[in-house]
């Protein structure tokens, strides 16, 4: 057995290592500098995923509520039929009671048996009495069973409706809460981006957890969910010779993906494009991603199709949150081609 005295520096070294770990800033404290902690960028990415999940669950809850309303309409129709059946049973009971009263002239059936003048009349009276009792008993039993079923069905329908309404309200509240937190984090992220652009000093790449399921396709859209806005070549006061790319209207902090495999040839944060990334693809074309709020790659880094390379924003010459996407023959402005047919030719139609 080895003696601890043979390693006199082991304990002090461990103490120093623990001290370094204790004073190292957490991810939440970092400002996303080069190689630093992701900070608000990671918070936005996490809340972006949470908001998408909450929206899906809310949509599913709305669908379930609509299905429950359809079931409730069918149940109400059945309940209406049951109510009509109960009403008919009540009418039958009323007719039986009135018939007994008329047949007996107001005299109770038992008294009429006692006052019978002959055995034949007594037998007939007994038969009438028995049939009348059976008819009344059967009618009363049917009425009571129908009323019991009706009450139980109404209670179940009411409970199911209230449960779905409560579940939908809870999902809506959760969705709204996540979206509020996401909006606040987006504001902080854009504030950091604006400060970096104003200072002319890029914050550097933030290290975010990439999606676990990577794309198996060679080419993808630059953002997963979007609305197309300004297209290639469109006119406008903000562009001297027409729009040079395709805009994707997305909220601040939306993950931006490399459309295909390649190498990052430019990361910059000044000028009209604000924070931008340019990727040269293996086929020779380059793609540009502009007006970002953060980048998640370094210049010279290899990227795969679908890999996150940044987060959308509204830096530079931008009127609102969106991704400006260009396809170029070279890394430089002025060599652009229309991104829509370019992506379409690679199996990525934009809708």
Descriptive overview:
This protein is of the alpha+beta class and 351 residues long. It is 49% helix and 14% strand. It is built from five helices and ten strands. Strands 1, 2, 3, 4, 5, 6, 7, 8, 9 and 10 form a ten-stranded antiparallel β-sheet that branches. A hairpin with a 4-residue loop joins strand 5 (275-281) and strand 6 (286-295). The longest helix has 81 residues, at 119-199. Residues 1-37 have low confidence and may be disordered.
Low-confidence stretches: 1-37
Q: How helix-rich are the residues, as a percent range?
A: 40-55%
User: What can be said about the biggest beta sheet?
Assistant: 10 strands, antiparallel
Q: Separation of termini?
A: 71 Å
Number of DSSP E strands: 10
Mean pLDDT: 79
Which structural class should the secondary elements be placed in? Answer: alpha+beta
Gyration radius, in Å: 39 Å
One letter per element, helices H and strands E, the order comes to HHHHEEEEEEEEEEH
Classify the beta-strand content into a percent band: 5-15%
- Which shape, going by the Cα principal axes? rod-shaped
The number of helical segments is 5
